[in-house]
């Protein structure tokens, strides 16, 4: 009986730890973000848009080959991470648009075969505050709706600059 209880407790502890680790893996910005390469910039001045802001997109090494050789049916390897640094749009007195403070960080990480990504094309979609705290959003509604039509490029919208 004691043995059984012990086994159950150990099993529970393992499950908890696994849960915590998985959770952290999903909702933490990578430490090696400085090694990511800039791939694209998008400016959305429209204040009503859900993606209002100046977005600088970065990609890690893992996904770089696929990004540059994307073709229909190709998919990104697990561990590919795209980061979007989002900055406020400031209009100057002369009517120019200038980059302001950081507003958020968007994140896509490929992990096929996960319960959490099965409705979002195999990608974790996360939005962080500038200090790296994950925001409480529904990835399917807040993110995937827009990315979903881009199935041909594995739900990635950016394309290499020509
Ligand atoms: C209104 C549509 C829209 C919504 C909503 C949206 N995105 Fe995107 N996202 C885009 C567009 C458009 C681009 C690429 C623009 C470009 O060509 O550089 C993009 C690019 C990205 C990229 C770079 C990789 C890629 O696909 O090009 C990441 C990472 C990203 N979005 C994450 C998110 C996250 C996380 C959310 C939810 C919080 C989100 N997006 C919601 C339209 C959207």
Topology:
Elements: H1 2-26, E1 37-44, E2 53-59, H2 61-68, E3 81-91, E4 97-110, E5 123-128, H3 139-147
Antiparallel strand pairs: 1-2, 2-3, 3-4, 4-5
The chain binds heme C.
Strand order of the largest sheet: 1-2-3-4-5
Compute the average pLDDT.
90
Give a short account of the largest sheet. 5 strands, antiparallel
Number-wise, the strands total 5
Supply the CATH class: Alpha Beta
Rg for CA atoms: 19 Å
Count every helix, treating DSSP H or I runs of 4 or more residues as helices. 3
Bound compounds: heme C
How many angstroms separate the termini? 68 Å
Structural class: alpha+beta
Can you say what the CATH homologous superfamily is?
Cytochrome P460
Low-confidence stretches: none
Question: Explain this structure to me?
Answer:
The chain has one domain (30-153): Cytochrome P460 (Chalcone isomerase, 3-Layer(bba) Sandwich). The chain is globular. The protein has a five-stranded antiparallel beta sheet. The chain has three helices and five strands, in the order αββαβββα. Helix content is 26%, strand content 28%. It has helices at 2-26, 61-68, 139-147; strands at 37-44, 53-59, 81-91, 97-110, 123-128. Bound molecules: heme C. Heme C binds next to strand 1, strand 3, strand 4, strand 5 and helix 3.
């Amino acid at each position: 009986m004691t043995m059984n209880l012990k086994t159950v407790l150990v099993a529970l502890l393992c499950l908890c730890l696994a849960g915590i680790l998985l959770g952290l893996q999903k909702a933490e910005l990578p430490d090696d973000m400085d090694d990511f390469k800039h791939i694209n910039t998008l400016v959305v001045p429209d204040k009503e848009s859900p993606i209002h802001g100046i977005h600088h997109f970065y990609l890690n090494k893992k996904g770089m080959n696929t990004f540059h050789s994307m073709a229909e049916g190709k998919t990104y390897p697990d561990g590919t991470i795209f980061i979007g640094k989002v900055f406020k749009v400031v209009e100057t007195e002369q009517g120019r648009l200038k980059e302001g403070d950081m507003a958020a960080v968007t994140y896509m990480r490929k992990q096929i075969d996960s319960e959490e990504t099965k409705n979002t094309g195999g990608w974790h979609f996360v939005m962080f505050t500038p200090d790296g705290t994950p925001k409480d959003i529904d990835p399917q509604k807040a993110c995937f709706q827009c990315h979903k039509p881009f199935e041909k490029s594995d739900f990635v919208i950016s394309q290499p600059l020509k």
